[in-house]
Specification:
The structure is a single chain. This protein is of the alpha/beta class and about 400 residues long. It has helices at about 1-25, 55-70, 90-105, 115-130, 160-175, 185-200, 205, 220-230, 240-255, 270-275, 305-315, 325-345, 350-355; strands spanning about 30, 40-45, 80-85, 110, 135, 180-185, 210-215, 235-240, 260-265, 285-290, 345, 385-390, 395-405. Helix 9 (about 240-255) packs parallel to helix 10.
Length: about 400
């Protein structure tokens, strides 16, 4: 009998040991550089100075949102350490800051670096290092290329798609019009122009009467606007970042020019562009949106915007709710939190990308109804939908249906 009891005790001990071992295997935590039991270190690069400094508020909004997350207990008990540097919208500076974040600060990944030129400059480096360059703040089509750049993913709708939408609108509303295009001389501007030309098809050659490009270092684009008016254009498309968008609106008004005015979405913030340009000068301008405008009365009782306002009041009181960059920063941050929560205790760079490429039907609080975030291993373009809008009075008014348009490489 004692021998049986001994065998039973040994068997019980073995079962307990096996159970403990298997449970340990299931709950095993996996970390890469930048993640621990208590911290997730995230890098970021923003133009807090320079020609695109109006976008710097995106980084400030994200910092405030992560502060909120930390105050509420963090991500699975881990606090976010958000390290954000200024690159002044300068590609060489972006490279310097990316290297500092990866090699010196040892972040887990770089989240939402802003600008087509800056992201282009660091893309090869990030992929060679196998460090996620995640949810980049630019809509160039090149960010949706998981085959060649599996560590880089976009977020906002791509510029070619938006350009196609403007072309479709022009063909419907002003099919015999003459188009003048002002654009930034880089991949950002050229992507829009390609989308417009593709959307116009065979009519592009006859309808586009002038194209003027500008460099980000130039102090003013006034001469380019004058040149396009002199070409006889009665449709003006301004593909510009906030500083130059405001300049283009002011100059068109100063010239007494009355074209059908189309302004790209990334340069259409009420607070950062329309007000500085003069509300009276922005009437009837056409653009697109995928984010909610917190100043639009239709969202007065919207739960998502109420949460957004509560966040601003407590964590970012200096944030201007009229500035679309604030709500977009809020949306970027919520997307990142969704991915980190999905990662659980596997905070490896590989799993970060895996979860980022596995988003299905995510509806963010600050994004328009009917527009959801979707990704896959072969689709690194999270948002593919827009809605047209026009500037009336002191705000943008949405019109038409949500439009889905996808453009490949």
């Amino acid at each position: 009998m004692p021998a049986f009891r001994d065998r039973l005790q040994i068997l019980s001990a073995t079962i307990i040991l096996l159970a403990a071992t298997s449970t340990g295997a299931i709950a095993q935590k996996k970390y890469d550089t930048g993640a621990t039991d208590t911290e997730i270190k995230i890098g970021n690069i923003m133009p807090y100075s320079g020609p695109a400094s109006a976008y710097g508020v995106i980084g400030k909004t994200e910092a405030a949102y992560f502060k909120k997350i930390n105050a509420e207990g963090g991500i699975n008990g881990r606090k976010i350490n958000f390290i954000s540097y200024d690159d002044a919208y300068s590609p060489p500076k972006a490279v310097e800051q990316a290297r500092k974040l990866v090699e010196s600060d040892e972040v887990l990944f770089i989240f939402n670096p802003l600008g087509t030129p800056s992201n282009s400059a660091i893309q090869k480096y990030m992929n060679e290092k196998k460090v996620p360059q995640l949810f980049v703040s630019t809509g160039a089509t090149k960010w949706n290329d998981p085959k060649h750049f599996p560590w880089t993913m976009g977020w906002i709708p791509n510029y070619q798609s938006e350009g196609r939408i403007y072309a479709q609108y022009i063909l419907k509303e002003r099919p015999t019009g003459k188009i003048g295009i002002l654009y930034q001389n880089d991949d950002y501007g050229k992507d829009y122009v390609k989308g417009i030309r593709d959307g116009l098809g065979a009519k592009a050659a006859s309808m586009i009467v002038g194209e003027e490009s500008y460099e980000t270092a130039t102090p003013t684009i006034d001469s380019h606007v004058v040149a396009l008016k002199s070409e006889g254009a009665d449709i003006f498309i301004s593909i510009t970042t906030p500083k130059f968008a405001a300049q283009s609106i002011k100059k068109v008004a100063e010239l007494g020019w009355k074209p059908l005015f189309i302004l790209n979405s990334v340069g259409s913030s009420t607070g950062a562009v329309m007000r500085p340009a003069g509300i009276e000068n922005g009437q009837n301008i056409i653009s697109t949106a995928y984010n909610k405008d917190p100043t639009d009365p239709q969202w007065n009782d919207d739960v998502g915007i109420k949460h957004f306002d509560a966040f601003l009041a407590k964590y970012f009181p200096e944030g201007n709710r009229e500035d679309s960059s604030v709500v977009i920063g809020y949306n970027y941050a919520q997307t990142m939190i969704h991915v980190l929560q999905a990662c659980g205790d596997d905070l490896t760079r590989e799993n970060i990308m895996k979860q980022a490429a596995s988003i299905k039907g995510l509806q963010l609080e600050g994004v328009l109804p009917g527009i959801t975030i979707n990704t896959s291993a072969t689709d690194f373009a999270p948002i593919k939908q827009f809605q047209l809008r026009t500037f009336k009075g002191e705000r943008w008014e949405l019109f038409g249906d949500v439009i889905t348009t996808e453009v490949g490489e």
